[in-house]
Design goal:
Strand content: 15-25%
Mean pLDDT: 94
Order of helices and strands: EHHEEEHEH
Distance between the termini: 34 Å
Radius of gyration: 14 Å
Number of helices: 4
């Protein structure tokens, strides 16, 4: 798999992948999420290609205190092939190069497969409660 920064030509394939993997929820507009990401640290938005098709994505974020991983997705037919690990490691390297001391991420508590995936990569439960407040309604 070849990992590279997102390019505008990837937009429809990225959104299709996010829909296939269940990452698109009614209150998030994936086009708007991409537009927002391209305004802040666009170099932390990566895609993975294999066999001429887009098969993986990851968005990293860093505001000077903590790094974040969002939208890590691997095409269903290619999951459990190491692509997710490679995407996570690629964004981790970019975040570390920015001086990021720690990465956080949020997973729905019911998504046990993804929790197991991140645990295998060395992520642990920080025993915190994730709270959120929507400032802009996408829908």
């Amino acid at each position: 798999m070849h990992i590279r920064p997102f390019e505008e030509k990837d937009r429809s394939a990225v959104i299709r992948l996010w829909k296939e993997t269940g990452l698109v929820v009614p209150h998030n507009d994936p086009d708007k999420d991409i537009d927002r990401k391209l305004e802040v640290n666009p170099e932390l938005f990566l895609v993975g290609e294999a066999g001429g098709e887009l098969v993986a994505t990851v968005m990293g974020g860093y505001e000077g205190h903590r790094g974040w991983i969002n939208y890590l997705a691997v095409k269903p037919g290619r999951q459990r092939s190491g692509h997710g690990r490679l995407m996570a490691e690629a964004v981790e390297r970019l975040l570390a190069a920015k001086g990021c001391p720690k990465i956080n991420l949020q997973i729905r508590a019911t998504n046990t497969d993804v929790i197991e995936f991140y645990t295998a990569l060395g992520y642990g439960n920080d025993n915190v409660v994730g709270l959120g407040k929507r400032l802009i309604q996408d829908q």
